Each structure stands twice: as structure tokens, then as C-alpha cells.
Task: inverse folding
């Protein structure tokens, strides 16, 4: 499996040339999209969705051995800080694909895995539910259509006395998965995008959301709260990728 395109995105700096009213295309909710997304074989951009099913989680040692066999750019997925589990709320965690290990899932008592990727496999294991949001990290994908249904699903899991420990991941735990968690926080806690972003960044400093998804979240803020409270130039300045995946991983070597 090749991760190069996604890795390159994590090395790029965000476009900072936006105005407060520049939210790009207007998106809409699509009822039933989350259920449909579980069966999609291609993303809206034409990427083939990995439909491989795995029934066991790799151990941390197995992934570190795998890392040794990969080109360096691909191996960063299995490096800290991306594989770290970051607790965002009482029952909600963020990580990268390399963090989905047998040890992490058991230690954090995870009962639901939300994969915001098209590249990674389907997890089919007893006692753990699996949800996929098959999108690429290019910012042009319509993730907005998933915000309401997925936020409600996460709320059903972690709130309402269900207390189901849930982890959301993408490849690096920096962009796509963060977008989903931000949407959930904005809806469940009635937070502005700016406040939700600060909360997540405090608990996972390596986040760097694709600018296209920031714009979709800005539209969602207006949908939820009836007005735009977050200035795009401010949030994109906070979000700017000043450090690449390569540089971050080097700090932990």
C-alpha cells in the first residue's frame, strides 16, 4: 500500500491566503450518507477504498518491525507522535493509523474505531464496532455531508450514559480524523470552531487540518450556531503546518 501522496500532504504548509468570507463551495447534508459510506468502493475523487478485512490487531512490535521494511516516507506513519493516543474527551480519543495496535486498544478499553480514511482496512473483531468515512485528505472531498450523522453517532457512543470508548483515526491523526472530532465537539458542546480547535490542539499539538476542511467546518459553524463566530484567517493561521511529518518524527527518534 502506498502512502506517499498522503505523506506529502502532511509535509505541505497550509494556504494562508483567505479572507473571512472565503469559505469556498457551499455544501449540504446528505441523509443516509454514513450508512452508504460503509459500502463505497471509491471516494468521490476516484480513489479505490481498501475493502480488505482484518480480524486481529497488530502489536506495537509487529508494526515497528514493519516500519523497518518501508521507505522512510511511508515509515513515518508508524512513528511518534502520530501513533500516540490523545484523549480529547472522557471517552473520545484521536490517533494515527499506526496507533491502532492491540496494546493501545486494550489499554484504552476501545469499543469503537472510526476510520476517516480510504487507504486502511476494515476492522472486524468481536466486541469492537467499526465505522468508516471514506475520504481523501485533499480538502475538495465533501466531508461536510458526514458531519451531522457522524457527530450524532459519536455522541450516541460516548455520551448519553453509553460511555463507549471510541477512537477516531486517519493516517497521521492530524487532518481528517481531527476534522471529524471538531465537528462532533462543535455540535455536541455548541462550541465555535475556534474554541473546538483550541481544545483539540491542546490535547494533540500535532494537528494540521487541511484548509479545505477548515472551510467546511466554518460553514458547519454557521449552520449550527446561526452565525460565523470564527474568523477564517485566524483559524488558518493557528492551523498552519509549520513542521512537516518528517521533522516531527525526527524529534522522537
Result:
Amino acid at each position: 500500500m502506498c502512502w506517499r501522496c498522503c505523506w506529502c500532504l502532511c509535509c505541505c504548509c497550509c494556504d494562508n491566503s483567505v479572507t473571512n468570507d472565503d469559505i469556498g463551495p457551499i455544501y449540504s447534508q446528505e441523509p443516509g450518507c454514513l450508512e452508504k459510506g460503509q459500502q463505497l468502493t471509491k471516494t468521490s475523487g476516484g480513489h479505490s477504498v481498501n475493502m480488505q478485512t482484518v480480524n486481529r490487531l497488530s502489536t506495537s512490535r509487529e508494526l515497528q518491525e514493519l516500519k523497518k521494511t518501508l521507505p522512510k516516507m511511508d515509515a513515518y506513519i508508524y512513528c511518534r507522535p502520530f501513533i500516540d493516543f490523545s484523549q480529547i474527551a472522557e471517552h473520545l480519543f484521536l490517533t494515527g493509523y499506526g496507533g491502532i495496535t492491540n496494546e493501545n486498544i486494550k489499554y484504552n478499553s476501545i469499543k469503537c474505531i472510526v476510520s476517516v480514511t480510504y487507504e486502511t482496512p476494515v476492522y472486524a473483531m468481536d466486541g469492537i464496532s467499526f465505522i468508516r468515512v471514506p475520504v481523501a485528505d485533499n480538502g475538495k472531498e465533501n466531508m461536510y455531508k458526514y458531519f451531522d450523522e457522524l457527530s450524532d453517532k459519536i455522541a450516541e457512543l460516548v455520551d448519553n450514559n453509553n460511555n463507549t470508548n471510541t477512537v477516531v483515526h486517519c493516517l497521521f491523526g492530524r487532518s481528517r480524523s481531527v476534522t471529524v472530532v471538531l465537528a462532533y465537539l462543535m455540535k455536541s458542546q455548541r462550541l465555535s470552531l475556534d474554541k473546538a480547535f483550541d481544545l483539540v490542539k491542546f490535547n494533540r499539538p500535532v494537528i494540521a487540518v487541511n484548509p479545505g476542511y477548515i472551510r467546511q467546518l466554518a460553514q458547519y459553524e454557521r449552520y449550527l450556531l446561526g452565525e460565523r463566530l470564527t474568523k477564517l484567517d485566524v483559524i488558518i493561521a493557528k492551523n498552519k503546518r509549520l513542521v512537516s511529518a518528517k521533522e516531527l518524527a525526527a524529534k522522537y527518534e
